[in-house]
Amino acid sequence: MTPDDCPSPRDRSLPALAFYRTAQGLVRLLFALLGGFRVTGREHVPDRGATLLVSNHLSFWDVFVLGSGISRPLNFVARSSLFKPMLGWLIRSLGGFPIQREGIGVQGFKETLRRLKRGGIVALFPEGTRSPDGALQPLKPGIAPLATRARVPIVPVGIAGTFEAWPRHRRFPRPHPLRLHIGPPIVPEELDSLSPEEAAALIRERIQQAVDAARLGLAPRPPG
């Protein structure tokens, strides 16, 4: 599967797309009011075709950071426990689909490939859960086989500021500047000669580089 094989069809109805764009604008406004939001590296996201985004995971805000910072409507994975009445409807309306928390799982693997085959852009948090300390955690099993099987550009993304704004132990968010940096894509050929462990290590390294770039000039604020 390559981006050229997969033109990006409109995979949302017009009302759903309008809902997504409205939510996108409202979140951008909210982040501006809560300390500011800056995105760098947007040129690394292909304008069309299947694309896999891989990001660090710090906070409940992260999905909203990705959705508001990247122009193309995203598909994203979310743990299955979130798919309850109302909240589940909202997540699905914004392009979310469920996975098992301990890894991407068989169904999540298949659904990710299906959405990529339709030419979509799918965002994953390969750590599997929010970081307890703000540092990038080991990646869960499944990301390397998925990346190898998909054969699409893998775009590493770094988020900064959301841990200070809304860490996992805090009930409500607080104002803090947020940053999103998008790194150069990993092309499928870079993974061809690598073992699953080496591929996962490469993906993690590129995510860390994006995180470091996102943190430039952003002063940390101790959580509490």
How would you portray this structure in words?
With 224 residues, the chain is an alpha/beta fold. The protein has one domain: Glycerol-3-phosphate (1)-acyltransferase, CATH 3.40.1130.10. It has seven helices and seven strands. It has helices at 14-33, 62-69, 87-93, 105-117, 143-150, 162-165, 196-215; strands at residues 37-40, 51-55, 75-79, 96-99, 121-124, 154-160, 178-182. The chain has a seven-stranded mixed β-sheet, sandwiched between helices. Strand 3, helix 3 (87-93) and strand 4 form a beta-alpha-beta unit. Helix 5 (143-150) crosses helix 7. The chain is globular, with a radius of gyration of 16 Å.
What's the β-strand tally?
7
Instruction: Give the averaged pLDDT, no decimals.
Output: 88
Order of helices and strands: HEEHEHEHEHEHEH
CATH class group: Alpha Beta
CATH topology: Glycerol-3-phosphate (1)-acyltransferase
GO biological process, one term: phosphatidic acid biosynthetic process
InterPro entries: Plipid/glycerol_acylTrfase (IPR002123)
Protein name: 1-acyl-sn-glycerol-3-phosphate acyltransferase
Domain Phospholipid/glycerol acyltransferase: 51-162
Topology readout:
Elements: H1 14-33, E1 37-40, E2 51-55, H2 62-69, E3 75-79, H3 87-93, E4 96-99, H4 105-117, E5 121-124, H5 143-150, E6 154-160, H6 162-165, E7 178-182, H7 196-215
Parallel strand pairs: 1-7, 2-5, 2-6, 3-4, 3-5
Antiparallel strand pairs: 6-7
